[in-house]
Structure formats: structure tokens, C-alpha cells
Amino acid sequence: MSNFPILIVALPLCFAFFISLLSLTKLNRFCGHLALLSVGVSFVLTLCLGPRILAGEKIAYSLGNWPAPLGINLLVDGLSYLLSLIFGLLVLLSVIYSLEDHKGKYFSLVLILYAGMNGVVFTRDLFNLYVFWEILSISAYILVVSPQPASLRASLLYLFLGSLATALFLLGVGIIYALAGTFDMDALAREIPVIWRTQPLAILLVGALFLVSLGIKSGLFPMYVWVPEAHSLAPTPISVLLSGAVLKIGIYIFIRLFLTLFRTEVSLEGLILYWGLISMVFGGCLALVQEDLKRMLAYSSINQVGLILIGIGLGTKLGMEGSLYHLFNHALIKGSLFFSAGMIIESTGKRRIRELKGNGIVPFFPRFSFLMGALAIIGVPPLNGFISKWLICRAAVERGNLIVAALILIFGIVAAVYYLKVVQNLFSVAKMCQTEKRQSSSIPWIKYTCLGTLLGGSLVFGLLPSQGLYLIREAVALIFP
Amino acid sequence: MILEHYLAFWLHPFGMYIRLDALSTIFLSLTVILGACVLIYSIRYVKEDRIRYYPLLILFLLSLSVTFTSADLLSFYIFFEISSFIAYLLIIHSRTRAAFRAGSKYIIMTFLGAASIFLAIILIHRQLGSYKFSALGELEVSGRSGLIRLIYVLFIAGCFIKAGIMPLHTWLPDAHPAAPSPISALLSGVTIKIGLYGIMRFLFSTGSLSRLAVSYSLIGFAAISMLAGAVLALLQDDAKRLLAYSSISQMGYVLLGIGVGTNLSLAGALYHSINHGLFKGLLFLCAGAVIRSTRMRNLSDLGGLRKRMPITGIVCLIGCLAISGVPIFSGFISKTLLSRSVEKFFCLKIVFLLTASGTFASYLKFYLFTFSGALPQGLTRVKEVSWSMLLPMLFLAGFSIFLGLFPDLILSKVILPAIAEISIFSSAVKFDQVNPLSALYPLILGGLIYYLGIRTKLFFIEESPLWQRTGSQFRKVSVDRFYTEVVAMIEKACLLFKNIERFSFNTHLLFILVFLTGLVMLLYFTPQGILFP
Amino acid sequence: MRRQETKIVRNVARKLFPVLVLFAFYLIIYGHISPGGGFQGGVVLGSSLILLYLSEGPERVEKKFKNSQLAILEAIGVLTFVGIGFLGIILGKHFLGNFLPIGRVGMVPSAGLVLLLNLFIGTKVGAGISLIFYALMKFDRRAQGE
Fold first, then answer.
1. Where is the NADH-Ubiquinone oxidoreductase (complex I) chain 5 N-terminal domain (chain B) (predicted)?
2. How many CB pairs under 8 A join A and B?
3. pLDDT tens column, B331-347
4. Which of A92, A430, B27, B108 has the most crowded Cβ, counting Cβ within 10 A?
5. CA distances from B389 to A244, B41, B289, B369, C12 (A)
């Protein structure tokens, strides 16, 4: 049990290179299954940690048995557990989804991505966090490339902006090291208030650098540009991972660094609130006029990330609860939306919203799950999106910010407009011929299980919000004890 | 007797209460009766996509029932939203372009209304710490008057959208014709009453009708809806559109009864909601039967169906007489109750007279254009619809007559307990000292209007020279057009905004740089975080 | 095709290659007691191959040091590294916990695991650098061919 944190990170890493060895041999076709096995084991290990974490325990692990300020430490607490759970689920489903379509190196990259994600959320060492972040980003850059030629461009764009972000982050980390002489987060939490008194400017600079780099990585307003490109052109399972997991890492690091460590005198709440608001408005407005299905989903992601930030920026316990719950919900919902969009695009070969009209060849289940996902993200009651939106709205109202609450609700309606436009096209009267109909049944059932899991999840966490709140309780307790 | 139950399995930490009292019972039984009729009617009416239609219909009825029986604002809102969305799916059931357009308009407006109600609910929760209807009594004294006023405006505006009160009605005349006829019957008979039910619950729980502003504004909107709905109904050529506009006008009656707020008017309002549910359901089913067997829906194309569809003709006549307020039919009772409650206000009496005559004229048009006159060439082979469609219609017609024959029974057994539930005054309401001849004035005036309308061809927008000259001016004042233009403007603004996508990579890098610099400056100059108090 | 380099360049490069490899392994092996280490040594290892590639031309070098071999070497480097980490767990210590004798300070076989780890990191980085270079050159050749 005590070794679980490192096993969760190291197993996928180990298997990743084993798979890249295997892909050179004739056993190439088993790469996917091996990846599935390792992600499954890692996910089960994460689940095993669950009871202890949710009981309020924190599990620490030091690499090579070097104590805190010297060595690298891992720590699993409520927040990192929540994130790790999301990552495990999404990566597992993505691997299942891509079993048929991909082989070889792809899986090894997905595993590296997974290891990097878990590493980022577990580590207590600032530089190590940067390293894991870089690892996951690099594999994400490569994974964005799909057979479509335009995706290479998208990947390059992502690479440029992403490496700009990590470079800025590294700069910030360097400044911090120069000031504090340590990378360990617990030591930094003690050091930074001391430094703040003598050199506030340096800390502010670090804060600004971190904020910009996190903003780029989680696709906030002025630096969102890679989001629509990468999300829309990546293979379907990678879009799911980008939107559900990779965007969330920026938010995680923000919460970790700014809310649990660098609690300095500067109150960032207002900044975060308005930043999130602008992102939400911007994402919603642009999603309204998109013509490409996956691009629209990408802009919707920007919108939702803005909403999550609003919840954080409200600076109350309720807001944080809503925000983390929405983070979890958004991963489920966007996962199911991207999966069903991928299936729709696969079976029709068309990705413009207008061209989807009158296509009888889309199988029922993707259409249905797209509808359900749309409902969840709009915030229609029995589904989970409603609960989190409601919590955030309540937090906003209790903070006295009526306009924010009204804007959140209005952008829910805007989301209704752009999602229902797609739904209407999907459900419009079919004019199919027999040949087309026969083609349509080619989606293997195993892909439906991914959709089914996510849909079931969003229904369960909508009907039983107590379960979801139980999951995030420890994470919230970390920030608002 | 009041039944209350806590649904523990659902939305657990937030609570969810189901409560059945006399007021809920009225609307619940209306839902159940009309729902049963619609289910039977649909067997023959709906031919395509039954696998989607029936589950949705049953879910729809279920969510409507729970909306009416919810004991707290939260579950009211939740089922309000669920039923709205299922109604959307049912409206777009035919999946034609027109249905999609109507459905979009419906869902956007309803969601707007729902959002407004939701905001009000959150504000109420912030004030009171509870969602229950029974806690609402303290709302008046719980905070600043401006905030309380905002809550009222938000909640009532949301309900207005749902109830189709002018000027927030524009989804209604589009959605009703687009939906399958049984669904239109449910929409008009039950769904739009959710809005009024919400207003009733809310206003009487908070006791805010003692504010004159609330009362007068309700009466004002009600009068506008009554008059404008009746006038617009007169001008329609599409049978179901006519019925839809007439629904707006009838909702005005109910809202007026709520706004006046005496026991008498409240009795009239409740009575009228029941009546309207039944006879408007009946009329929509009749229109559906006609559409089903002729495949036409424009009144000017129809005619002479009395011989071909005798039973439909008779039940339709009953429905038309009932809604026009002819004695011995149900509409007469409720309209008389309502008009007696506003006896003191001269203006409202005029409005009543005009609306009633307009309604009569429009239903004369509806009935005569469809069932009398010469049979057009194409309709010689039309047959009566099947019994499974006729039976619900006959049942509803019989019920309408029953409600007209025994007003005192209904008043004492059904309506008064409900009023006792919500109103603070308790006084008996009796239906007596009524001169049936008082119904004659609107009938005569209505006949006159119909005659004039036919003679001057004002009923037909396409043919009348007067309309061709003035029509464009009239359309300028249409609220629907105004809303559409607002939406188009928003979309145009977003398209303008979309140009940001075309910026080069360098420009985006510049943005990032500017943002970084700005952030450093911001943090430097506001180290204490003045962005937020 | 790329023209052949002059004889001088080729000869110097050929003579320099073993020295560079030796230097690389020096950096790797003395990593824990003097400046250097797995990453630095690996880069020198990779650049020695790059030098050979530039002077001898792609065909001969890629025949001697095959792409697939380098890929295997790279994967084995990492796998062994992680494997040693797991061995630490198996032997009752932490991940990457030291299970070898520490030895005397300043001597080459000392500091427990660090020497081994440096060795495998060096292999991995050397192979990786060469692979990246191969890929870039292939890209370049394809671009010229078009």
C-alpha cells in the first residue's frame, strides 16, 4: 500500500517503453492490450487508495527514502486524488476506444501522458512538477497529430504555445529557487511569506509568470488559440484527453500553487473571477458561430473552464465545491460529447454541423449520447452539469455577485443554442439509401462501452450529488479547512 | 388532506419534497385526465417514430405531475425544466424545418424563463435558507425591498414566459402548430398552466398580492394578453395558430383572476384553468382530427366537413360554445365568476366584453370555416376519424358540459378547498344570482365582428387590401420580430468576433505578451488586491 | 544527394570518434564525483554519432548503427532504469532506494545505485539524441527530394 503512489506513476512509464520495444517486433498488435492492462492496474491502484484518502488521510512517499527537503516527495491528498481519478478514468476509456484504430507507439505515448499527469498531481517538488508537466505536454503535442495533414500544423501551434508556457513556468521556478533555495512545496510554503516581506516584486513577477503559463495551458481567453486547433484535429480519444484532463492540469496547478501554497497577501480572487468570466463569455460567443463540430466542442471547453475559474475566483467554500465538482463533471460530459462526436464524424465522414443534416446513417446511440451530453452541459436538471452549475451560481449569489450568476445562466442558454443546433441536425429526417445504412453498423461495441460509462457516470452524479460531493470533500477541505 | 413525502433517494443532500394539497390536486387531475385522453388519441394519430413518442409522452406527463405536486421551489424548478425539455423533444417530433424553428424558439424562451426563475430561487434561498413553499411567508420581511422586488420580477417574468403572457408569448403561436396535435392539446391544456400555477403558489405564499404594484401589473399584463390574444386569433388562417392565440387570451383571463386576488376572482381563475384545459384540449384534438383526415390546416382551404365528419363537428361545436362562454357550457361559469369579481372596474369590464366578443367571433370563424359551407373539390373523399380518436374528444366534450351544469358542486368540492389552501381570506363563493342573458352582449357583438370581418375580408391577410397597405406597419410593432432581430444582432456580433480566429500566430503571441505585461503591472500596482473587496 | 565531405574532414572525424565515445563514458562513469553525469555524457555520445553521420554520409552510418537498434537501446535504457527502481521496492526499500554497497567516497565504484543509473541514462540519452538527429535528417532529405 505504501508504494502505491510511485507505482501509479511508474507502472505506465515502464510499460510505455516496453510497448515501444514491443512495437518493433511482430507482437505489434498486442500493444493496445498491454497498455490497457497497465492503465487498468494503475487505475485500480488509484481506486485502492480511495478509502484512505476519502477518510481524510494523506499518503506521502519519498523517492529513494530521501526525506523532504533533499529528495523528491510524492503526496496523495484529496485534490490530487480527485484529479488522478479523472485522469485514470479518461485514459482508460481512451485506450479502450482506440484499441481498434491505433497501434504501437501511440499507446506508449498515451501511457507517458498518463504517467506525466499522475506525476504532476502527486509530486510535492516544484521542479519535478515542471518535469512531469513537460513530459505530459510533449506526448500530448505528438498525440495531436492524426492522419489529417492539417493536424501537423495544429500540433506545431500547440508545441510553440505549450513550450512558451512551460518556459515561462520554468523561469518562475528558477526565480523561486534563487530566492528560497528549495523546490519542496512545504518548505516553500514557509519561505514565501518571509520573502514576500523583503522582495514582493519578485514574488509578483513569479505569480504573473505562473498565471500566464497556466492560462496558456488551460486555454483561457487571450491565449486560447491552440485549443480549437488541437482539439478539433486530434484523434477522438486524444480530444477527450485534452479537453477532459490536460486542460484541467492548468487549473490543478493553479489551485495547488496559489491557493494552498502561495497564500500571500495578494488576493487573486478578483482577477481569477473576471478572467474566468471573460473566458466564459468569449468561449460561449465563439462556439455559437462555429461550423465545425469538434471546434464548437473545443470552444465550449473554453467556456466551461471559464466557469470553473469563476467558481474558484469567488473565493468561498461553496464556490470551490461547485468548481471542483464542475471540473469532475466536465471531464465526464466532455468525454462523452467528444466520443460521440468522434463516432458521428467516423460514421458520416462529415464534420461540418450543417452537413450533418439529414444523415440517417449515424447510429442511434451516439446521437442519443450527444443529446444527453448536451443536456448535461447546458445544465438540465437530472444530469450532473446542473448540480455544479447550481452550486457555482449559489456561491456567486451568496457572495453578492448577482450579475455573475445571471451571466452563468445566460451562457447556459447560449450553450443550449449551439448544442441544440447540432442535435436538431442529427435528428432531422433521414434520407438514407440502403447501401449507406449497411455501412453504419461498423462501429464496434467496445466503443459504445466508453460512451455508456461516461453517460452512466453523468447520470449517477446528477441524481446522487451526495456521492460526488463526498469525492470532492477532502479536496475542498484542503483549501478551506 | 395534505400528503407530504421526502424523496430521499434523489438529490440527497439538497432535499426534495413532494406534497399534494387541494391546489395541486386540481392541476394534477387536469394533467391526468387530459393525459389519458391524449394517450388514447395518439394511438391512431401518431404514426411515425412511436418508439420515441410514447416514452417521451409518458415522461412528459410524469414530469408535469411532479411539477404540480412539488413542495419546494427546487423540485418545482427541476421538473419545470425537465418537462420543458421533454416538451421540446415532442414539439420537434415531426422533424421538419418548421418544427425545428418553432422548437428552437420555444426552448430558448423557456430556458430563459427557467433561468430567471432559477435566479429568483437562488436569491430566495439566500434570503431564507430554505427552498420550501411554506417558508416563503417570511420573504417580505427578510431583506432590502429592492432585492425582494427583484425576486418578484424574476420569478413572475419566468412564469410569464411559460404561461405565454404577452409580450413574452412569442414561442406559443409557433410551437403549437408545429407540434403534433395531441401534444398541442397538452401544451395548451396543461403545460402553460405551470406558469400560472407557479405565480399562484408564489404570490399567495409570499403574500405579495398586498402590494398594489404587483396586483396592478398582473392585471395590466392580463388585460393586454386578453385583448391582443383575441384580436390576433381573429386574424389567423392556420387553425392551430388560431387556437394558440386564443390560448394566450384565455391565460389572460386566469392571470386577471389571480391579479385581482379576491376569493371570487381566484375561484374564477381556477375554474377557468380547469375549463380551459378541457375545452382547449378538445379543440386541439378536433383540429388534429381535421388535419389528420384532410391533411390541410388552413381554414380558407377547408369547409363543409359537417357532413363528412359529423361527430367531430358536434364535439367541436361544443368546444367552441364552451370557450365562447355560452350558458350551460363550462366557459360561461368561469367567465361570469371573473367578470363579477371585476365589476367595480369599468375599464376591465370593457376589456372583458371586447375579449369575449373577439373570442366568440374567432371561434365562429374556426367552426364555420371548417364545418359549414361548400365542400371543396379535394375533400370529397374525407372520412370520419376512428373511434379511438373520437372517444377522448367525446369524453372531453361531456366533461365540459358537466362542468357547466354543476358549478356549485365543483366550486364547493374542488375549488374552495384549494382557495382555502392559499388564500388568507375565507369566504364562501357561490354561483348564484346570475342572469344568463348577460352572456348575450358578447355573443351579439362577436357575431357582428364576424360579419364585418367576412364582409371586409379583414380575416384574410393575403386578400384584404387594407392589410396589404398597413401590414408592414403592423409587423414593425410585432414583439416577435423584435426578439428575432435581437437574436440576429447577437449572432452578427459573434460573427464579427469570430474574425479573431483569422489573426496570425504573431498577433496571438503579442496578445500573450501584452497580457503578461499587463498582469505584472496590475499585480504591481494593486498589491492588496483591490480588484475584490 | 549530399556530396561527400573532403578526405580531411572524414579522416579527422573517424579518428575523433573513439575519443569522443571514451570521453562520453568518462563523463557518465565519473558523473557522481565530478562534473558530468548521465545526461551530459549521453549528449556527447549522441554527438559523436552525429559527427560520424555528417562526415561519412547517411548510408554508411545508418547501416552500422541501425535506427531500430538505437530505438531498442533507448527503450532498454529507460526500462532498466525503472526496473532498478522497482528492484529497490522488491528488495524492501523505497522506489530507487539504494541496495548496493556505498563504497568509499571519491572512488569510481561508489555511491551505490548512482553509477548504474547514470550508465543507463547515458545510453538512453545517447540513443535518443541520435534518433532525433536521424529523424531530422530524414525530414530534411525528404524535403530536398520533393
1. 16-50
2. 153
3. 888 888 888 877 777 88
4. B27
5. 50, 5, 8, 22, 100
Task: Give per-residue pLDDT as tens, B63-97.
Answer: 898 888 888 888 888 888 888 889 898 888 888 88
Residue spans per domain, chain C? 7-145
Tell me, letter by letter, the H, E, C secondary structure of A423-477.
HHHHHCCCCCCHHHHHHHCCCCHHHHHHHHHHHHHHHHHHHCHHHHHHHHHHHHH
Measured between CB atoms, does A97 come within 8 Å of chain C? no
- Cβ neighbours of A428 in B, within 8 Å: 95, 100
**Average pLDDT along chain A, 481 residues, taken 10 residues at a time:** 83 88 81 89 90 85 77 87 92 89 85 92 90 92 86 89 92 90 85 82 85 90 87 90 91 87 70 89 89 90 92 88 92 91 83 75 81 90 87 89 89 90 80 50 78 89 84 85 77
Listed in order, strand segments (DSSP E) in A73-186 are 73-76
Q: Which of A7, A10, A24 sits opposite C68 (nearest CB)?
A: A24
The three cell numbers locating residue A331: 471531464
Residue with cell 519519498: A62
B72: helix, strand or coil: strand
Interface of A with B in 349-388 (CB under 8 A): 375, 378, 380-382, 386-387
CA–CA separation, A319 and A321 (whole Å):
5
CA C41 – CA B47 distance, rounded (Å):
77
- Kindly determine whether residue C83 and residue A20, on different chains, have CB atoms separated by under 8 Å: no
Q: What are the beta bridge partners of residue A75?
A: A60
Spatial distance between the Cα atoms of B68 and B80, rounded to a whole number of angstroms: 9
Specify which of B53-62, B258-267, B349-358 reaches the highest per-range mean pLDDT.
Answer: B53-62
DSSP three-state, residue B298: strand
Nearest to B14 among A421, A427, A465 (CB): A465
Quick check: B489 contacting A, CB < 8 Å? Answer: no
CA A366 to the chain's CA centroid: 22
Q: Is the peptide bond before B182 cis (omega within 30 degrees of 0)?
A: no
- Domain borders along chain B are 3-463, 464-501, 503-533
SS3 call for A240: helix
- Min distance B333 CA to chain A CA atoms (Å): 39
How many Cβ atoms are within 10 Å of B106's Cβ, its own excluded?
A: 24
Number of H helices and number of E strands within chain C? 5, 0
State the pairing for strand pair A73-76/B17-20: unpaired
* Chains A and B touching, counted as 3 or more CB pairs less than 8 Å apart: yes
B/e letters for B254-290, b = 16+ CB within 10 Å, e = fewer, are: bbbbbbbbbbbbbbbbbbbbbbbbbbbbbbbbbbbbb
Find, among A180, A203, A451, A191, the residue nearest to A335 by Cα: A451
A285 contact residues in B (CB cutoff 8 A): 493-494, 497
pLDDT above 70 for B424: no
